[in-house]
Each structure stands twice: as C-alpha cells, then as structure tokens.
Amino acid sequence: MKETVKTKRRSFKHLVPPVDLTGRIERSTRMDRTIHAVAKAVRRRLGPGRLRDLLHGVPTGKPLHPPLVTVSLGCWVATAVLDLTHADPRAARAVLTTGIATALPAAAAGITDWSSLHREQQRVGFVHAVANLTAVGLYAGSLALRLAGDDRRGRLLSFAALGAAGLGGQLGGHLAYRQAAGANHAESVAHLVPLGWHDLCELKDLPDGRPVARRLGYIDLFVLRVGEGVTVLADGCSHLAGPLHQGRLVSEDGSACVVCPWHGSTFRLSDGTVAHGPATAPQPSFETRIRRDGVLQVRPAPL
C-alpha cells in the first residue's frame, strides 16, 4: 500500500510543469528589440487621438479588447462543438467566419493596449499575440478548405487552431490576472481613505502652479495649488500606477489636465475623468477646503 502511494506521488510530480513558462517569458530579453520596434511603430501610427482612445475603450470606460475577444473565442468553441456533433457544415462555416471577422478588431484593440504596457507585460503579450495570430491563420485555412469542399481536413485544422487559441487565452489570463494589465490600478483608493475630512498639509507649504505628491494614510496624492485653489487626485495613475505629480500639465478642449509620465494617460483636473488613454478608469478625486488656520483638508469626492 505504501509503495502504491509513493508511486502515485512520483507520477503526480511528472504532471507538474518543472518550469514556469510564463515566468520565463517575462524574464526573457530575446524579443525586446522586436517588441520595442513594434510598440514604437504602433504608437507612432496611431498617435494620440480619437481612434486610439476608441481602441483603448476610453468612451465606454472599460478596455475594449476583452469583450471583443470573447466573441471570437465563443464562435470558435461553437465551431468545435458543431464539428464534433457533425452538425450542418453551413452552420459551422458561418460561426467560424464570424469568429475570424471579429478577431480583426479584437487584435487592433489588443495591440493598441499592448503598445502601452511595461516591458515584462509586453513580452507575455507578444507571445499571446503570436499564438492568437497563429490561431486566426489556421482558422482561415480551415475556412478555405471547407469552402473547397474538404470538410474533414477543415475540421482537423480547426481543432489545431483551437489549441493555439487556448494557449493565447492562457497567456491573456496571465496578463490580466497575474500582471494586472488592463486593471484599474486606482480602484483601491476609495477603500483606503476613511470618510470625513482629513488634514493634509498647510497651504503655504505648497508651491504655486507646480504639482507635488503628499501622503494621506496609505496613499499618495497629486496636489496642485493655483493661487488659493487646490486640486487633489490620487497620484497613482489608474492605468499602471505611474506618478502623476511628475507629469505635464496641459489643456485639452479648454480643460486643465495632467499627463501621466509613463504612458501618456491624460486626466482632467476638475474631476479625474479620462481625456485620453491608455487609461480607461477615472482617477479618484478629492474635495478640498482650507481651514481658517491655513490647513488644507481633503476628503474623497462622491462617486
């Protein structure tokens, strides 16, 4: 009995991957030159503006890539089910075609997001993209075979494509859940600041017209004094937590804004809303008041 247990344990060890593949991808520098060139080309091609904001998902306040991807993956899984059940080939072709068509805008949104990530995230994202592009190519080949009347080989190619898409999905999950790409990095601010007014600093200690960082409890704040008025936002950018107090002050459509120094996300100072991506979530803002003794007080603005 003991020998059987030991044998099972040894067998189980062989099922555990000896190497963390995603960790190796994160640390590998072999792709960096290509990644740098492609990301730079994407940013230069799109430039700041409405198209890039649309692909990031700024108008909806949520990243655009994830919902588009679910449509493609759903269609491709449905294709596999139809193939396995030997359903009407026309239905399989229609669903497969829909998956390929929706993969194109999903890829455009994905590469736009990818171009504004940290290098470790870009490494995983690059392999994620290669896997997904491989899947799209295989699915396109499958569709061509089906249209030519070779449904058998078309089905086989679809199953291979689903494997590539599955690998891409696993890497996409790592990007989202382990590396927090696309997550709101300022979401926790409201939970870390107690209700009510809090003393922050004396007004006279703030430079006029230049943003600085001040700490309130567990969080850093972006503080900008202009005369007797003070604007306060969470300092960590909602995109990837860049320090906003080191950013540039600009005007967008008549609104004063701050540009994150890391990836260029632009937030309106009046309420923290996003003027330009890659950030899609607004920056937490704070109400301010000056006590008679000159102490600046802040409290989280209502959501």
From TrEMBL:
Concerning PROSITE patterns, the annotation shows: RIESKE
UniProt domain Rieske: residue ranges: 198-297
One MF annotation (Gene Ontology) recorded for this entry: metal ion binding
Q: Which InterPro entries did the record assign?
A: DUF2231_TM, Rieske_2Fe-2S, Rieske_2Fe-2S_sf
In terms of superkingdom, the source organism counts as Bacteria
> Among its keywords, does the record have Transmembrane helix?
yes
Q: Which UniProt keywords apply?
A: 2Fe-2S, Dioxygenase, Iron, Iron-sulfur, Membrane, Metal-binding, Oxidoreductase, Transmembrane, Transmembrane helix
Residues in coiled coil: none
Cofactors required: [2Fe-2S] cluster
- Where are the membrane-spanning stretches? 94-112, 124-145
What family classification does the UniProt entry report for this protein? Belongs to the bacterial ring-hydroxylating dioxygenase ferredoxin component family.
Protein name (record):
Ferredoxin subunits of nitrite reductase and ring-hydroxylating dioxygenase-like protein
Q: Which organism is it from?
A: Streptosporangium roseum (strain ATCC 12428 / DSM 43021 / JCM 3005 / KCTC 9067 / NCIMB 10171 / NRRL 2505 / NI 9100)
Source taxonomy:
Bacteria, Bacillati, Actinomycetota, Actinomycetes, Streptosporangiales
